[in-house]
């Protein structure tokens, strides 16, 4: 038996979707040869059997008997298949609704009504333009369902590790001369527990190293939940070095808040182990603290705060007042804060002298569209700042800047469509 009633009901719903969508394929192949119609049937139901069989197997097989990456890939494969079919169902249902009302209208008008059946494979004996419309909608339904199937599959195969270097110039009003032209690389949201291609991950690190930045910032989410996820990637990320150091902070996932622990102490130890991993890689984790960089007699402050989110159910672990203490006197202050909601909620209203905040967290939803300066993602409806550069003036007229990195890794869906993984290279300039 399946684990619970909800799983059984979901299988039943999947089967209904399968039968309904199959009628569209049968309709489109109606004028083909018998061999072609057989091939369509075998191809459709073969793909369906694999998808449905995979879902059932995932419910029956103990979770710890399959590798984490394998289970994730299988689950996402099932999701993509049925999400695509669901899109097809929407268009087919629209077609059926249209034909149903046409049938009602014909009956009211006293005409001989065309036969109506919710199954789109049914032949219609209506006027020519109705048949044309029906044929168009069925073809549209199949095409619409194929788009997410192709896009999300391509997003796994290609998009997951299609790293892009983004270059940003940061003009700063009070930047000391010795730091003019300094370069900073930012990584964020590595999510090492999601990786499935170690060679590609290393390739991204090589791209960063080729840029030879003076300084590197990592803005949180090294793991999905458990510290041991990063173990097999330490030998890759410990190559991330810079002359002025690598500074890092924690993101919401680094606190293990999304899995069940045997005790609160076990969860606390997990956080300590994540911090330990940062240190093993030669990084400098900033846990509500700051560091002062000195160069040519000039100084600037790097402030790092633990996760501070201000959205629904957001995790609050940091203390910016504590992190800021001792940095007041320095002319430029750079803040590492994982969640961009922190900028509007606390940084801008209470710390107008923090020049730039470096964040991540949103991943740009790992899905969207970017053309030149135009960008769109569904995540924009949840986050005011979700990807790229944002500026606001303080009440004193001093500009403050936020940069939201699109993330190096991924979580949940193991790929990216349109919003590609990012390595950001900043150049500081005197304004």
TrEMBL record:
User: Which parts pass through the membrane?
Assistant: 39-61, 73-94, 136-157
- All copies of domain Calcineurin-like phosphoesterase, residue ranges: 182-364
Q: Which UniProt keywords apply?
A: Hydrolase, Membrane, Metal-binding, Transmembrane, Transmembrane helix
Q: Does the keyword Transmembrane helix apply?
A: yes
Name of the protein: Metallophosphoesterase
**What organism is the protein native to?**
Fibrivirga algicola
């Amino acid at each position: 038996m399946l684990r619970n009633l909800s799983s059984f009901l979901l299988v039943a719903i999947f089967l209904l979707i399968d039968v309904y969508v199959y009628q569209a394929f049968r309709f489109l192949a109606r004028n083909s040869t018998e061999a072609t119609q057989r091939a369509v049937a075998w191809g459709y139901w073969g793909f369906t059997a694999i998808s449905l069989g995979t879902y059932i197997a995932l419910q029956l097989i103990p979770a710890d008997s399959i590798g984490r990456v394998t289970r994730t890939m299988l689950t996402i494969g099932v999701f993509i298949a049925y999400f695509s079919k669901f899109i097809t169902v929407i268009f087919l249902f629209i077609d059926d609704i249209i034909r149903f009302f046409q049938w009602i209208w014909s009956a009211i008008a006293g005409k001989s009504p065309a036969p109506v059946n919710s199954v789109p494979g049914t032949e219609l004996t209506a006027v020519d333009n109705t048949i044309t419309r029906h044929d168009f909608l069925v073809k549209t339904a199949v095409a619409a369902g194929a788009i997410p199937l192709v896009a999300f599959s391509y997003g796994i195969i290609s998009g997951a590790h299609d790293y892009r270097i983004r270059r940003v110039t940061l003009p700063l009003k009070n930047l000391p001369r010795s730091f003019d032209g300094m370069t900073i690389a930012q990584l964020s949201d590595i999510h090492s527990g999601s990786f499935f291609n170690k060679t590609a991950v290393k390739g991204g690190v090589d791209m960063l190293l080729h840029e030879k930045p003076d300084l590197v910032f990592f803005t949180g989410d090294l793991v999905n939940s458990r510290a041991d996820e990063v173990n097999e990637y330490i030998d890759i990320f410990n190559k991330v070095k810079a002359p002025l150091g690598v500074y890092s902070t924690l993101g919401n996932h680094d606190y293990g808040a999304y899995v069940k622990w045997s005790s609160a102490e076990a969860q606390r130890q997990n956080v300590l182990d994540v911090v330990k991993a940062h240190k093993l890689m030669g990084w400098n984790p900033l846990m509500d603290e700051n560091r002062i960089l000195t160069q040519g007699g000039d100084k600037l402050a790097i402030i790092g705060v633990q996760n501070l989110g201000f959205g629904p159910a957001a995790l609050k672990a940091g203390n910016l007042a504590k992190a800021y203490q001792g940095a007041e006197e320095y002319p430029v202050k750079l803040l590492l804060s994982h969640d961009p909601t922190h900028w509007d909620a606390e940084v801008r209203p209470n710390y107008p002298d923090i020049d730039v905040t470096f964040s991540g967290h949103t991943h740009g939803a790992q899905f969207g569209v970017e053309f030149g300066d135009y960008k769109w993602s569904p995540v924009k409806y949840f986050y005011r700042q979700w990807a790229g550069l944002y500026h606001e003036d303080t009440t004193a007229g001093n500009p403050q800047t936020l940069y939201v990195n699109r993330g190096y890794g991924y979580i949940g869906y193991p790929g990216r469509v349109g919003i590609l993984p990012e390595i950001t290279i900043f150049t500081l300039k005197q304004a």
